[in-house]
């Protein structure tokens, strides 16, 4: 299999979104995906993109991606946050994830970031084993916090609370 890794382009949005939906099924949360290929286009392929992505393809077909963005830590400075590393399920185990992840590591070196961060579900043993091959630190002490769009929109400054239930 001849795998090619390259920077994502606007014409990849449909394929990238299909990968996200496949991942959501795998992670048992298909109802959580609210993005669309159009949202990917408007958020990632503009003058000031909210994200960047690498894609892996075979014979012109996108079979994997690494979607990430630059962030900042008051303790560490500039870092890359890897939001998703996805490989089509039928093609996992062929080195596609390895190629995407290592290309991202090279990018991190090129732009001189201080850290590469990501989250992994505690039950996803396959992903955990993958990251451990890179001697990655998997920190069990941090809890992911989040507010949904509904919670943000319903926030009442006078009470200091979001009206909407937490997810």
Overall description:
By secondary structure, the protein is an alpha+beta fold. The chain has one domain (3-139): Aminopeptidase (3-Layer(aba) Sandwich). It is built from 5 helices and 7 strands, in the order βααβββαβααββ. The chain has a 5-stranded mixed sheet with strand order 1-2-3-4-5. The chain has a two-stranded antiparallel ribbon with strand order 6-7. Strand 3 (61-73) and strand 4 (77-87) form a beta hairpin. Helix 1 (13-26) packs across helix 2 (37-44). The longest helix has 15 residues, at 96-110.
Question: Top keywords for this entry?
Answer:
167 residues, alpha+beta, 5-stranded mixed beta sheet, two-stranded antiparallel ribbon, 7 strands
Structure summarized in a few sentences:
By secondary structure, the chain is an alpha+beta fold. The protein is 30% helix and 26% strand. The chain has a single domain (3-139), classed as Gcn5-related N-acetyltransferase (GNAT) (Aminopeptidase, 3-Layer(aba) Sandwich), CATH 3.40.630.30.
| Biggest sheet, spatial arrangement of strands | 1-2-3-4-5
**Roughly what fraction of the amino acids lie in strands?**
25-35%
The CATH C-level class name: Alpha Beta
Mean pLDDT value: 92
**Helical run tally:** 5
**Spans of 5+ residues with little confidence (pLDDT < 50)?**
none
CATH superfamily: Gcn5-related N-acetyltransferase (GNAT)
Tally of domains: 1
Distance between the termini: 41 Å
Helix and strand content put the structural class at alpha+beta
Helix content: 25-40%
Strand-and-helix sequence, N→C?
EHHEEEHEHHEE
State the shape. Answer: globular
- Under the CATH scheme, which architecture would be assigned? 3-Layer(aba) Sandwich
| Beta strands, count | 7
Rg result = 17 Å
What is the CATH topology classification name? Aminopeptidase
The largest sheet is: 5 strands, mixed
